[in-house]
Design a protein that fits this description.
296 residues; Arc Repressor Mutant, subunit A; D-Maltodextrin-Binding Protein, domain 2; transcription
Length: 296
């Protein structure tokens, strides 16, 4: 079934005349007749009764022309949506992110972006870790991803912020010196770490520089880890943004051997991005997020 056939049946139904339908569509009458005849052959029913009253829809034709009108309307809407996506008066930007960036970074960017482009929709797709985020980009389910750097070679990426890993100690915990040591941390019955794979960078770092200590990394939610430390059930190491908001009574220290996670913005290099996506990327570049890594 061809678009020309749908247009032909609607035009003949409107004008009840093959000649006038041909004029409307800027085609010859034989072309209209051929389009209707081939459509009737494909469907196996007669669409029009031809007589002195002109071309009158049959009972089957009335039902089929309704669907033809709906199909043409949907095609028109598709074209309008495509035109919106090609401009900055509409469209959608889909952003895949883990919770800490979705909570502490994206809201201020989205608020600024919507002031400039109120008709562009923003969707945040929260994923548990950077590997899921990158896979979401590969599958075309997101346009932009907030992930760890470095990324795979298929992405264009740039640094957004460097986030310190910090040690959280229960309220009223005292350490022996000005700077916390690994021994101070190991003195706690349990040291809670981010779950894998988000905690992979930290696990590798601890293996290289820290003495053995009792650790656990099976808790999915960062807020749960913070609450457990607040109740004195152990200490924790988390990225600062992931730990926010940090209760005032908790003791917060940089690690004896400092470590940062590098958070970046990524998009597929070969993707055909809309102007809306490029506009959001440009908006991201106008912000200085490095002060966020020192919150609290």
């Amino acid at each position: 079934m061809k678009l020309s056939q749908l247009r032909a049946i609607v035009a003949v139904a409107d004008y009840r005349n093959f000649s006038e339908a041909a004029l409307e569509l800027n085609l010859s009458q034989p072309a209209i007749s051929h389009a209707i005849a081939t459509l009737e052959a494909e469907l196996g029913v007669s669409l029009f009764s031809r007589g002195r009253r002109g071309a009158v829809l049959t009972a089957a034709g009335e039902q089929i022309v309704y669907h033809a009108r709906q199909s043409l309307l949907h095609l028109e809407l598709m074209q309008k949506e495509a035109n919106l996506q090609k401009g900055l008066n509409g469209g959608q930007v889909r952003i895949a992110s883990f919770r800490s960036v979705a909570t502490h970074v994206l809201p201020m960017v989205i608020a600024c972006f919507r002031d400039r482009f109120p008709n562009i929709g923003i969707t945040i797709i929260e994923r548990p870790d950077y590997l899921d985020i990158e896979q979401t980009l590969r599958e075309g389910r997101a346009d932009i991803g907030m992930t760890y750097l470095p990324t795979g070679a298929e992405f264009e990426a740039w640094e957004l912020v460097r986030d310190d890993y910090v040690a959280l100690l229960p309220p009223k915990t005292s350490i022996r010196g000005v700077q916390m040591t690994w021994e101070d941390l190991a003195a706690h019955p349990l040291v809670l770490l981010p779950c894998l794979p988000c905690g992979r960078i930290l696990h590798k770092h601890l293996t290289a520089v820290a003495p053995p200590m009792r650790t656990a990394s099976d808790i999915q939610e960062d807020s749960t880890i913070v609450s457990m430390v607040m109740q004195g059930l152990g200490a924790a190491i988390l990225p600062r943004l992931a730990a926010e908001p940090i209760p005032r009574d908790l003791c917060v220290h940089l690690l004896p051997d400092p470590l940062k996670r590098v958070i970046g913005v990524a998009a597929l290099s070969d993707a055909l991005h809309t102007p809306a996506v490029f506009a959001f990327l440009e908006t991201l570049k106008t912000f200085d997020f490095h002060s966020l890594a020192h919150v609290g």
